[in-house]
């Protein structure tokens, strides 16, 4: 595994622990040496980020994460900083005990949580309460310490991951540290990059000098920025695919138009729209490049299916008789399909065979309905949910949300590191549907189209949000999208 790949590779907590153990068993690196390296890397990061900080407050749990904290505190003392160390109980384990003793030998004195309000003001707080093993709500002193740190007002550096955040799922079963930055060690943990991952702040990976031979295949990986290659000079509209967007029941014409226009902006050669008669005039006036047709049922849709190479099925489709009839007819055509919105709701209501090439793009609520579980259960383990959907439907699945996940039927998973809260507005999912459909039409396979589509969509959203997240519209993504898909700075 090369260094760039390690920078995007995501591991489970069990994999991370196994790497720690192999470092000791195969290379003879003691656990205390790894702890010392982690503390040195974290303190260097702290000093670089907050160079004028004079007083630290380090909060240590009883495990090895607390051991990291004791050694950060020792290094800070050696650098001439003032340090208060709050110990949440006696350290457990040989390495953590040794770390505490080393801090005391350097002149430090652990204090209890009860002294919190009497301690001098601190410039930076260091979270060393829990490591990767916590998958429950923090309780007792740990909960109180997390609440006190969050309320304190000073920036927080988390060691390995913020206490209270699940290293595997990104869930926060109870309170969690809200860090400004996180120093994570050896490998990226996958929970740092989805769901409630924003509590980690800026994340820096410190591999602690371990060789690549120790690392197994990762559980998943982060997406990298990408774009389509330049077109051959002899290209024509017929060589770049024909997307047919199907949807737009009464009052929902905007949804299918956004999907169709996004497909155009992503480079599809031709884009047709099958929608209600009432929407055609407005579409032709606003975007004449779209070939909008009023269809009143399957017979009118069939000639359009014969000309299409890819379907974007579901935006504004509705679940009434009109939408259902178009849905069944479109699925029977067995064309490469992106299935979204009401296309997914209809699939929940009626089991159907899907096209051989299909991308499903559910939000957590839609995913829960399709899996027969509630939304909370989906979010409790997004990786398990997206893999199960991909396996069950033999499809590529995009599970939308903070840190969107893309899974293939073979079980590979990619995680999107871009996007922002301003994208939580109507029409964003419709634009994603059109983007992925256009990439399929231009020759990407389903997993490539989903990964690149999610990447382009989220990055375009970040560019558009430079003018502010509130008030961000789906249509605002189209201009940066055009630049990004061509590999240009947006």
Automatic annotation (TrEMBL):
GO BP terms in the entry? metabolite repair; nicotinamide nucleotide metabolic process
Q: Which residues form the YjeF C-terminal domain?
A: 220-488
What keywords are annotated for this sequence in UniProt?
ATP-binding, Isomerase, Lyase, Metal-binding, Multifunctional enzyme, NAD, NADP, Nucleotide-binding, Potassium
Q: Which reaction does it catalyse?
A: (6S)-NADHX + ADP = AMP + phosphate + NADH + H(+); (6R)-NADPHX = (6S)-NADPHX; (6S)-NADPHX + ADP = AMP + phosphate + NADPH + H(+); (6R)-NADHX = (6S)-NADHX
Cofactor(s) it depends on: K(+); Mg(2+)
Q: Which GO-annotated molecular functions does the record name? A: ADP-dependent NAD(P)H-hydrate dehydratase activity; ATP binding; metal ion binding; NAD(P)HX epimerase activity
Task: Give the protein's biological function.
Answer: Catalyzes the epimerization of the S- and R-forms of NAD(P)HX, a damaged form of NAD(P)H that is a result of enzymatic or heat-dependent hydration. This is a prerequisite for the S-specific NAD(P)H-hydrate dehydratase to allow the repair of both epimers of NAD(P)HX.
Residue intervals of the YjeF N-terminal domain:
16-216
Q: Which residues bind AMP?
A: 400-404, 429
Query: What family is this protein classified in?
Result: Belongs to the NnrE/AIBP family.
Note how many cofactor molecules are bound and how: Binds 1 potassium ion per subunit.
Please identify the protein, giving its name as recorded.
Answer: Bifunctional NAD(P)H-hydrate repair enzyme
The record, for PANTHER family, names: ATP-DEPENDENT (S)-NAD(P)H-HYDRATE DEHYDRATASE (PTHR12592:SF0), ATP-DEPENDENT (S)-NAD(P)H-HYDRATE DEHYDRATASE FAMILY MEMBER (PTHR12592)
User: Which positions are annotated as binding (6S)-NADPHX?
Assistant: 64-68, 131-137, 160, 255, 316, 363, 430
Sites binding K(+) sit at 65, 127, 163
EC no.?
4.2.1.136, 5.1.99.6
InterPro entries of this UniProt entry? Carbohydrate_kinase_pred_CS, CARKD, Nnr, Ribokinase-like, YjeF_N_dom, YjeF_N_dom_sf
Q: Which domain of life is it from?
A: Bacteria
Task: Point out the coiled-coil segments of this chain.
Answer: none
Assembly, in brief, is:
Homotetramer.
